[in-house]
Design goal:
The protein has a five-stranded parallel sheet with strand order 3-2-4-5-6, with helices on both faces. The protein is α/β, with parallel strands linked by helices. The two termini are 14 Å apart. The chain is built from 27 helices and 25 strands. It is elongated and about 135 Å long.
Length: 772
């Protein structure tokens, strides 16, 4: 039995709808299941999702304040006013700045941009930077991907005589900033057809309105910011990303070629994962460690030499960021494990002096993965007396709302239900932890504190093919609210498996349903080789990929999680070298059982683990998950009793037998008869003296002669006095099978046949019958 650490929630698409989609659209069963699981209730709805066009782009002037924003910018253009684009230091902010910079340069504006340094200026509008802009002659500030919470700095900007247009998508507070215009898809609530645009999406709408036509050359930037900011990939966002990916695949922009080179990505195969795992992190990294301006400069680069230089700079930042994240994560885990107050809180709040504030959000995400609790990671600055950091949450704990309940000790914060940033006085860190813990205990159930794995696409092996997998790619982009499919293969069997990799830390399997087979690979899952056996039903969670080798394409299942509710038999019989099988047994959890004292003595020092001797009363046997049967019992009934009392989920069968009788067999009746006649014809025969000679003469094993002698003694057929044998001719006629030693040898041979020398499948069946 292997149970996942996560709750598997398997949702099954409507079978009739899947069939209708498959028939009407002429698509594979897998593609039809995905569309049904993503809310396509009719073939027409699925068709519109698959074939999105420019019609899916909403009129930018539907956004409240758009006409006013365009009018103010056109006024600035006509009067040659200085315009400042005020961006943010993440990928969404960098691409938002790039979009706005492009359109204003194209329109002939006197424009520059500033992006705050997160360490010097913090997030959002900054009074010092706004005063600096005023000193530089700026008359109009356009914020991108920020500004909705910048009340005081924007008030200062207005007092200085500058106009401010805010373009943002973050959660608005109770009070809005005193900007001249606010462009926000949810402010006022419900005015715009789609409220989930990223910051770059809002900037793109403004660019669309300013150009007077759809700016297709900006799609590539919108795709990056939209994917990187994890906004829902539905409605307008979906089309923006889809078009952006198409443009990136064929773009001649130097930044794309440079980024593909440093990230080892193939431009023609760029997809949402390329953006999410390669482009986005590198753009984020530069702003996490210092100035974000090089990110904009890369995206604006007009020659390949400059683009390559900047891409390498971003790549180096990303490598440095990874090292910093690992170091802080290790420190944070050590703090949590060492402090019971932190460890027992339902909301983890962990802080360290000098931690890089630019990466604490990533660290928070790692800790959520590890502990599955809402987590805040703070960097302490004792000179300023502040704690600055980021938070990540779990389903059921609305981070923004819960933080909002603590405004009295949390003066600066912003974010979403699942992520937030904040700054607070150091002396309030412990108080914040205590409050959030109490709030979490009031709203989170035990079930919500167990990580959930939502699985929406159950598969059958005969549905999987290379063509079907290629077709799935056309359903993308996948992301937030249109998630990548999570596949489950239920109740399949393992046909073959082996460890792979230089360190044998990966596994390769061939899975079967009895008819079809499928190759599967589990990276960093080599341990499954010692935890799974053949002949049981196993379910696997994972992804589908195509393995292409020498021009041949084969489907392949990438294992992410596994579980089985069946008990398992691990066959370690006949392995003489103890080290070869001992490493496959979880020694800390297993109970090692010996039925014979000499076996226990033999293995006690050899294995270095406690050995439990099984007595007839089972006095020291208790229920346990894993048992190791070191040898054979004296009788089958004793083993059956052990199975009943321990109720194991895994059995490791070793059955060490130094005195095996199976191959010696049972002497035949003819042999017994000949031996009896031999002794009868030789009264007062010195048997012990001549037994070895007799064995040599007959060609029988000496052990067999001793056994037959013992049987004759037990049945009173032969007596021995002073070393001389005498046949008791008047002894009662008794069947040889009545002799205790005959019964014991017969049972021993039978046990060895069924337990030691039987094929695996027969041994498994023997245990199955008794466990069930």
């Amino acid at each position: 039995m292997i149970l996942s650490k996560k709750r598997w929630l398997v949702e099954r698409p409507d079978a009739q709808l899947v069939q209708a989609l498959q028939n009407d659209l002429q698509i594979s069963a897998i593609a039809a299941k995905i569309l049904a699981a993503r809310g396509c209730e009719t073939p027409a709805a699925a068709e519109s999702l698959l074939n999105m066009t420019d019609i899916n782009i909403h009129d930018p002037f539907l956004m409240h304040g758009m006409a006013e924003a365009v009018a103010r910018i056109e006024h600035a253009l006509e009067n040659s006013e200085k315009i400042l684009i005020y961006g943010d230091y993440d990928a969404d902010g960098i691409t938002s700045t790039t979009v706005m910079f492009n359109v204003l340069l194209d329109l002939g504006a006197d424009v520059s941009f500033k992006i705050p340094n997160r360490f010097l200026h913090g997030y959002g509008p900054n009074e010092a930077l706004f005063r600096e802009a005023h000193a530089e002659g700026v008359q109009l500030i356009i914020t991108v991907d920020n500004g909705i919470s910048g009340l005081e700095p924007i008030r200062v900007a207005k007092e200085l005589g500058m106009d401010v247009i805010v373009t943002d998508h973050h959660e608005p507070g109770e009070e809005l900033p005193p900007a001249d215009v606010i462009l926000h898809p949810r402010v006022p609530e419900g005015h715009y057809p789609f409220g989930e645009l990223a910051g770059v999406g809002v900037a793109f709408k403004l660019a669309h309105a300013l150009y007077g036509e759809l700016p297709t050359h900006l799609f590539e930037f919108v795709a990056i910011g939209t994917v990187a900011d994890l906004v829902p990939l539905v409605d307008e966002n979906r089309y923006l990303v889809k078009r952006g990916i198409e443009e990136m695949r064929r773009s001649l922009s130097p930044w794309i070629q440079a980024m593909c080179e440093v990230a080892s990505a193939e431009q023609s195969k760029i997809n949402e994962e390329t953006i999410g795992f390669y482009f986005g992190p590198r753009l984020n990294a530069v702003g996490r460690l210092g100035e974000a301006a090089p990110g904009v400069e890369l995206l604006m680069a007009e020659d390949s030499t400059k683009a390559i230089s900047l891409a390498k700079q971003l790549n180096a930042c990303n490598s440095e960021r990874k090292d910093i994240v690992k170091s802080i994560t290790d420190e944070a885990v050590a703090l949590i494990e060492a402090d019971e107050k932190i460890r027992e809180s339902l909301v983890l709040v962990v802080a360290g002096e000098g931690w890089n504030a630019g990466v604490v959000g990533i660290v928070a995400s790692r800790l959520v993965e590890l502990y599955y609790r809402p987590t805040i990671v703070l960097s302490l600055d004792f000179d300023k007396g502040t704690a600055k950091g980021s938070a990540r949450s779990i389903e059921g704990f609305h981070l923004f709302n819960e933080l909002a309940n603590n405004r009295d000790i949390l003066p600066h914060f912003g974010g979403h239900p699942m992520a937030a940033g904040m700054t607070l006085p150091i002396e309030h860190v412990d108080e914040l932890r205590a409050r959030l813990d109490a709030q979490a205990r009031a709203c989170l159930t035990e079930e919500q504190l167990t990580p959930v794995l939502n699985i929406d696409i159950p598969l059958k092996l005969d549905e999987i093919s290379a063509d079907a997998i290629e077709e799935i790619a056309n359903l993308g982009p996948f992301g937030t609210d249109f998630p990548k499919p999570v596949y489950v293969l239920e109740d399949v069997e393992i046909a073959t498996m082996r460890k792979i990799g230089a360190a044998e830390n990966h596994i390769k399997m061939e899975l079967t349903d009895g008819y079809e087979t499928l190759d599967s690979v589990g990276f960093n899952k080599g341990h499954l080789h010692d935890e799974l056996t053949h002949g049981i039903k196993v379910s696997f969670i994972g992804d589908l990929q195509i393995n292409e080798w020498q021009g041949r394409k084969k489907p392949q299942f990438m294992i992410e999680d596994v579980q089985t509710t069946e008990w398992q038999l691990f066959d370690i019989r006949g392995i003489r070298q103890t080290s070869r099988w001992l490493n496959t047994v979880p020694k800390e959890e297993a109970t090692f059982l010996a039925f014979r004292p000499e076996t226990g003595t033999y293995y006690q020092s050899l294995l270095g683990v406690p050995i439990v001797f099984v007595d007839a009363a089972l006095s020291n046997i208790a229920q346990t998950n894993y048992i190791v049967l070191l040898d054979l019992p004296q009788n089958v009934q004793l083993l059956e009793n052990v199975l009943q009392k321990t109720a194991p989920s895994r059995i490791y069968a070793h059955f060490y037998m130094p005195d095996s009788q199976y191959f010696n067999g049972m002497p035949t009746r003819e042999q017994f008869a000949w031996y009896y006649k031999f002794l009868k014809n030789r009264p007062a025969f010195p048997l012990n003296m001549h037994l070895p000679d007799l064995a040599k003469h007959t060609g029988w094993p000496l052990d067999a002669l001793k056994f037959m002698t013992q049987v004759f003694f037990e049945l009173d057929f032969v007596k021995m006095d002073s070393g001389l044998t005498t046949v008791h001719v008047n002894a009662p006629k008794t069947a040889l099978t009545e002799a205790p030693s005959y019964k014991q040898r017969s049972e021993q041979i039978d046990m060895e046949q069924k337990l030691v020398y039987a094929p695996y499948i027969e041994l498994k069946q023997w245990f199955d019958e008794r466990i069930h």
